[in-house]
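Cont'd.
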Amino acid sequence: MSAEGEANGKRATLLIGAPFIYAAAMLVVPIFTIITFSFWTQNYLDIDKNFTWANYIAAWSEPIYTTLMWRSLGISAVVTFFTVTLAYPLAYYISFHVPQERKTLWLFLITIPFWTSYLLRVFAWKIMLGYNGVLNSGLIGLGIIDEPIRAMLYNVNAVVITLTHAWGPFAILPIFVSLEKIDRSLINAARDLGDAAWRRFYRVILPLSMPGVIAALLIVFIPTVGDYITPGLVGGKDGVMIANMIRLQVSKANNWPLGAALAVNAMIIVAILSVTMVVCLRAFIKRIR
Amino acid sequence: MGKKSLGIYALAYILFLYLPVLLIPIFSFNASPIVSFPIEELTTQWYKNLLGEAVLHSALQNSLKVGIVAALTSTLLGMLAARAITNYNFLGRAPITALIMSPLVLPEIIVGISLLIVLQQLGLNLSLFTVALGHILLCLPFAIIVLRSSFEGLDKSLEYAAQDLGETPFWVFLRVTLPLILPGVLASLLITFTISFDEFLVAFFLAGNEPTLPVYIWSQLRFIAKLPNILALGSLILLFSFLLLWGADLLRRHAEKRMQTVK
C-alpha cells in the first residue's frame, strides 16, 4: 500500500506540477510584486525603492481616491443585491418547475450570455441608453415621452443597470446548483407536517440553498468592484470607478507604485468585506434553523 | 408565488438577458448611422466596410493566434490538473486547487496590473505573447471545470485493463484515456478559445502595439462615425462565439450520453 501510495503521490505531483507552477508564476509572483511596488515611489521614470507608506496614506486621505473607492464598493453592493435577488426566482423556477428534460435547454440559454463577449454586452447598453439611443427613440416612437431623457447614460444608474444585466447569469448558476441538491423529501416532509408554502420556503428551501446564494454574492461582488469596462463605457464622469483610476496611474499618470497601492488596497478591502459577509450570512442561517 | 407567475417572470428575465445584446445585430443592418428607432432602410454596407479595414484584419489575426495558443495550452494544463484533482488525494490538494481556480473570482484589473508590472520588470516587451500568457491563466479554471466532469465520468477499469495487458502509462493515456475524454477536451478547446477571443481587459493591459479584436473595438468606440462598423463586427463576433459554444455544448451532451450508456 505504502509503495503504491508513494507512486501515486509522485504521479499526482507530476500532474499538478505544471499547472501549479504556472498559476504561481503568473499570479502569486505578480501579486507579491505589486505589494512590493506599493511601498515604493516613482518620479517620472525613476523608481525610488525606499520603503514608504505614502501611497497608502494617499489612498486613504486624498478625496479623489477615497471617493472612487467608496463609490466602487457602493455600486458593487447595490449591483450584487439586485443581481442575486433577481436571479433567485429564476433559478428556483428552473429547479422546481421546469421538467427534467428541458432543464438543459434553459441552462444553455442562461450560459450563452455568460460566455460571450463582456465588452459587447456592455456596449449594447451604451446604444440602448444613449441620448439618441434605442430606448429614447423607442419611447418617443410609442408616444410615451416627447423629448429624449438625458439622464439615462453616463451616470451611476447606467453603471448599476448594465452590471446587473451583465452579471445575472453568474448569479443564477450557483443558486440553481444548490437548489438542485436539496433533497425533495425534506420539502414533502415539511408539507406533511402542515407548513404552508411560504413557510416551507423560508424554513427549508432558503436555508438549504444559502451556500449557492453566498457563492453568487461573492462571484458578483468581488469582480464588479474592480470593473473597468462598464464605468468606462456607460459611467461618464460621475460613474468612474477605482479600476479606471488604477489604469490611469499605470498609463498616463505614470505612477505605478500608487496604482499598485490602490489595487492592493482595493483587494484587501474586498477580501475583508467578503469574509465578513460570509460569516454574517452563516450566522443568519443558523438562526433560521 | 405561483408556478404561472414565476414562469412569466422567468421568460421576462430571459428577454432582459437577450434583448439588449440582440440590438447589436438588429441595428447592424440599419442604413442610418444613428442607432435609434425607427429603422427605415436596411443595408449590408457596414459589413462591406469591414472588408477594407486593414487594422481590423491584423487585429483579427492577432486574436486568432492568441486564442489558439491560449486554448491549446490551457486545455493541456487543465488536463493535467483535472486528472490530478479527480484521481489523487495529494498533499495541499485544496489550497493548490483554490490557487489555480482563483482567477475565476479575482477582479481582472488586479490580474491585469500585476502581470503588467511583473512582465515589465522582467524586461519583456508587451506583445501577443504576453497577452497569451495572461489568457492562459484566465482560461485554465474553465478548462478544469469542463475536463473534471470528463475524468469523473471515466470508467477506470478500462485503464486498468490496458495496464494489465502491458501498456506503459503513456500509451494507456494515448490509446484508452484520451479517446474516452476526447469530447471533453474538444469542448474545453472551444470554450477556452471563445474566452480568450472575447477577453478585453487583460489584453488591453498587455497587448502593447498589437491589439486583439476586443482592444481594437475599444479603440474604435471613441469615433462616433465608426459605430455602425462596430455593430457589424460585433454581430459577427456574437455569431461566431455562439456557434463555438453551441458546438461545445453538443460535445458535452454527447459525452454525457455516452458515459451513461457505458455504465
